[in-house]
# Entry
Amino acid sequence: MPSVLAIVSKAVFEEDHAGAKPGDVLPIDRYVSSMPVFKQVGKDDAVFLVTVRPGNALWLLAIIEAPKKKGKAWVGKKNTRPVAEIANAVDKLRFESGKGIGTAKGALGMALQTPRRLTADDVALLRSFGSGAEGTKP
# Structure
């Protein structure tokens, strides 16, 4: 079953996590969504939360492990990963559809509005960021 990449809007990020920066650990354990893509998320999957920051920078905010539907939210284990800048991943992500992000300059947030199923390679790439693995290097 697939893990999912979902975006946290600029407004929500700034309201809930004002002042957060790469290296900080955000204790996020839920993501509110009714999108059908989440219905296939299983106990061994995760929800990878990203946001777009000024300059079209993509940040991996949190990884919610083993999420389950509770009311309107998908709730799982509290995130323990530090926020990581993941611009290096943008051109490498392919998603289950086989398509990458493909965005016009400055439109990264719009391109990621819809949550997407990740491939095993996408999951491995995203997990490498903030772990001390090679994904954290340019």
